[in-house]
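Predict the assembly for these four chains.
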Amino acid sequence: MKQKKNVTFNDIAKYTGFSKTTISRYFNNPDSLTLENQEIISKALVDLDYKENKVAKILANGQTEFIGVIVPNLHNHYYSEMLNQILQTYEQFGYKFLVFVGNEHADTERKYIEELMSYKIEGLIILSFTIPSRELADLHLPIVTIEREDKYVCSVNTDNYMGGVQATSLLASHNCDILIHINTPTSPEIPAYGRIAGFEDVCREKNLRHKVIYRDLGSTYDSMKKSLSEILDELEKDYPTEKKGLFISSDTHANVFLNLLIQRYGTLPRDYYLVGFDDSPISTEAVIPISTVGQHIDQIAFEAVSLLVEQMNERKKRRPAPLEKTVHKVITPYLIRRETTEKDS
Amino acid sequence: MKQKKNVTFNDIAKYTGFSKTTISRYFNNPDSLTLENQEIISKALVDLDYKENKVAKILANGQTEFIGVIVPNLHNHYYSEMLNQILQTYEQFGYKFLVFVGNEHADTERKYIEELMSYKIEGLIILSFTIPSRELADLHLPIVTIEREDKYVCSVNTDNYMGGVQATSLLASHNCDILIHINTPTSPEIPAYGRIAGFEDVCREKNLRHKVIYRDLGSTYDSMKKSLSEILDELEKDYPTEKKGLFISSDTHANVFLNLLIQRYGTLPRDYYLVGFDDSPISTEAVIPISTVGQHIDQIAFEAVSLLVEQMNERKKRRPAPLEKTVHKVITPYLIRRETTEKDS
DNA sequence: TTGTACGCGTTATCAC
DNA sequence: GTGATAACGCGTACAA
């Protein structure tokens, strides 16, 4: 089967005259060998061109150093960038990632989780949202979710409420006559709901005229364009003269809305103020750079892996764990003022 | 160490009265058991809640079903979408992917490859371009590269030459007075060079006035904007009245150029025709949808994994392999006509 | 059709 | 400081 048989501890042992045990110790506890013997083994490794075999190591000590990851997709910039940052943590923690794309299909994701379990992953990071956290908790495996329903498991989320507050306050500071938030219908169970709550709270607190427009914009560019075009018509009709401050649920949507305005008026009319969400590339690359609220994706990824590593380490102790309550970390977002709010200022 | 000891073949064997071997056969060659006994074992699996352990399986038969993947980054839509499609092939081939982000640092990538080897990956897909294919070939492992220098290894690439021809022909069909191709300095060794060759060949063949502008546009939006703004100035100066057909190396760059024009003129001037490359989201989301050449990322990913699987299967045969020459598959791109060329038609 | 015995390459537990 | 020996959980000749 195998091309060339790999060099093993046995080969090194024979070559050097030591036992397998000593070779093992050279790697795991070198100080217990004399410097002399370390040298001998070190040389043998080179002579024989030894390559380590982590599979054997895993079977022997049970530590795979694997973390499973399930993302809904990688089209969405948020997910691909999050995966990017998660993978980067290899440098700090040394864990390897087995990645699956769930495509928002619960049973597929369950199958993936089973496969991951068979590879003895030590922990799991979940970005997909089809499987309830209740069910995830039953896996009895260290788990961290990111930006999804997280009642029964540990999680790291953006402070969406604060994001909503920041965006709304920015619009308010420009003295808009009417503040409008456009979003898809959102369950209060998921973190993104905070954006809506933040918007409403600021408006109420400051006693501002406002409105939330809930509408499913679809996932294709055309459906988004169609829905937003309708919304634009409504706004033009309902608030023809008012200075309108729009907080739109994502930069992608904000960009479509902006393009509609440009196509209609050749420029961004003075009575429109726009803020998006995510600080995704499109917010920079749009004809007119879009003000937005950014999530610290790098921090979130790092905190998620940290939180997971903590749990995994706890598991390895002899007295397994005090298993405290589920931890929910929250990362504060940042506001970026760009031209859709700071016009020719 | 371990929470609860896992149920093993031994446990099932004791429970059912069979031997471990029979249990193993139940999974790998069930037909060799009587239906009756299959039932008994099947029931035992449920009773004991058996979960398979692939790590042990690997150590025993050497087949990890792991494929290593190294991408330069995941910011770039092309890479994240390619990874997306690669991961999807799990459904057809069952291979799991260990993914690393190389960040274009050769030594880091070498370290990652070593780590991957220690996990006994069966094959490797390389999208990063820092390590020469000569060196990759020396790993003596099934390898497929995608869209990079591939002299000594198998690869799957887009037919960049054809892409260049398509883009250029489109511009030519609009009777542009001058055709211009903007690109970064590109080595003839990498597939993307074909775009330049295709452009030049079409222009020469049709005897068209043309020019290739080589310029490093940097990687930030601002540097791109700055460089392209300079190029725009040059074009305005050199070809003030000519109908200009621009083939730009990527949609991202084409979008920046488009935005510059819009900012300058409020609309896309009638004497500018633009074609980008990649069919990335920005080409659709731009103020004016950009004509572009699309790569069949799904096909490329599928062919890459297929090609790899072929090599891996060959390795498992008793007479290892006729090891033919390296295979280079080529996928034809598609042209999308959008508003930057098909104006009000 | 089923079982025995050994191997896969490492770590862990004792001894010495 | 070092070495036997037994796990780890499964696959596979070979035998019956």
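Chain A touches chain B through 55 residues (CB under 8 Å). The CA atoms of residues 9 and 23 of chain A lie 6 Å apart.
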